[in-house]
Amino acid sequence: MAVEPLVLDDDFVPLTGAGRTAPSLALLARPRSAAEAAGAVLRRGPRGAVARGRGRSGGDAAQNAGGTVLDLAALDRIRGLDQAAGLVVCEAGTELGALARALLPLGLQPRAGAGPWTVGGAIASGYGTGVAALELLGADGESRTVRHGEPLFDATVGGLGLTGVVLSATLAVRPVETAYLRERTVRFRDVDALLAHWTGGGAPREPYARARVELAGRGRAFLSTAAPVPYAGLPRGHRARRAPLALPSFPGVGAGGLRPLPGPARARVLPAYGSGFGPGAAFVRYRCAVPEGREEALRGILALLAGRRSPARGARHARVERVYADGAGPLAFRVRGWCLGLDVPAGAPGLGRFLDVLDERVAAAGGRVCLAEDARLRPALLPVMYPRLAAFRGLRAALDPGSVFRSDLSRRLGL
Ligand SMILES: Cc1cc2nc3c(=O)[nH]c(=O)nc-3n(C[C@H](O)[C@H](O)[C@H](O)COP(=O)(O)OP(=O)(O)OC[C@H]3O[C@@H](n4cnc5c(N)ncnc54)[C@H](O)[C@@H]3O)c2cc1C
Questions:
Q1: 208 — pLDDT class (breaks 50, 70, 90)
Q2: What would the pLDDT profile of 250-295 be if each residue is shown by its tens digit?
Q3: Which ligand 1 atom minimizes the distance to the CA of 92?
Q4: Separation between Cα atoms, residue 98 and residue 78, nearest integer Å
Q5: Which residues, in sequence order, are bridge partners of residue 183?
């Protein structure tokens, strides 16, 4: 019997996440309009479809082996700004950093934050701050407006593209007087001292706060906090006094602890954005949430990471953030408490088994692993980490009974 070789179409391209692990081939559609996106969803094959921003999430959430992937890069227009209402409407493929740069001369910034990731990707990865409404393309090729507070809105924020394709979003903007933040960094001898400071009454709740904990060497911790600088707060004689809303010319922290707001800053450092392990190096991004009151679990995980034999030692440091509120949706990653993240070079011997142990610790503490960054979680732990998983599955079954929206992640974890 003759065996017919499987010849993949030229349009099938290999895709990975930012970590460059687990590549898979998908038919890449590049819609330039909402109508073309609807056409791509309606024409998808039996392996379904999923949306993709810039592929900046760490794992396989924006991949769909053998199916369709909608690359939304061309849907990047800012459609309108209502300064009185403090709202901007933009297409889902718009990079939040580019939006921040476009708004800066008007003295405005998106409340959703800024970086080299897209509006749609940020929403689907769980960032819903300042999102008032979105246009969602469904499995039937129809789009509908979904507003903040509706169950479908909550399921779409953090829904990993599995509730539909976000075509555009209405985002809140906030006024800024200058393009700068003032950053302060405080050094602690170890993570215990950091947590004591951060949970104590005196710690200021700054808009931007992130700690770096050394995983090698002395195990010191560095807490950086930053707040927007009003015009009157610019140092005397600083050239920004002449043009406070011009794009800053330096990327990092400059004189007087001034640093550019996140979007403008990223524009200058974009080529360097990534794992820090060199261009093209594959890495695993581990990101987990640990609830407030379970700080001993956080300390235990950091101690395991810093252990002499830890396969994660290649990471050099871990990032720790304080989270002040739970996420709303059934697949929300955010848990009031702590967020821990690190990038580890892929392929370190024993890394898979080691991260499985971390997963168990996280689950036992009532925490969860971030699915948008994941490429390796075992499915058995999913309902433990995400107790409202059944609600998400129920909503998807009602909305998309044929499971049109699928990804490598959704197949791997049975989402
Ligand atoms: C305030 C803020 C802070 C952040 N901080 C960090 C950080 O410190 N470190 C870091 O690594 N990342 C950070 N991120 C990025 C975030 O974690 C995601 O990785 C990123 O937003 C996804 O990038 P992307 O747009 O390229 O989407 P992709 O990686 O391409 O896709 C990610 C997911 O979104 C889905 N998706 C993409 N577009 C759409 C769409 N239009 N409709 C429906 N689903 C879609 C995909 O299917 C996939 O499930 C931050 C994001 C924000 C908003």
A1: confident
A2: 777 887 789 999 888 766 554 444 556 777 789 999 999 999 999 9
A3: 41
A4: 10
A5: 226
C-alpha–C-alpha distance, residues 157 and 121, integer Å:
10
pLDDT at position 379 is: 97
Q: Give first-to-last CA distance, the chain, whole Å.
A: 39
Q: Which residues line ligand 1 (CB under 6 A)?
A: 50-57, 61-62, 72, 92, 112-113, 115, 117-118, 120-122, 124-125, 127, 160-161, 165-166, 372, 407
C-alpha distances (whole Å) from 283 to each of 132, 239, 240, 314 are 34, 40, 38, 10
Rounded CA-CA distance 312/342 in Å is: 9
Using only C-alpha atoms, what is the Rg of the chain?
22
Q: Collect all residues with Cβ–Cβ distance below 8 Å to 167 and sequence separation of at least 6.
A: 34, 37, 75, 91, 92, 120, 134, 135, 136, 137, 143
Q: Are 389 and 413 in contact (CB under 8 A)?
A: no
Check if the beta carbon of residue 142 is closer than 8 Å to that of residue 317: no
Nearest to 63 by CA among 4, 122, 31, 15: 15
Q: Which two tokens stand for residue 385?
A: 């980490």
Q: How far apart are CA 318 and CA 341, in angstroms?
A: 6
Residue nearest to atom 18 of ligand 1 (CA): 57
**Cβ atoms of residues 50 and 8 within 8 Å:** no
Render pLDDT for 339-397 as a digit per residue (tens, 0 to 9). Answer: 999 999 998 899 999 999 999 999 999 999 999 999 999 999 999 999 999 999 999 99
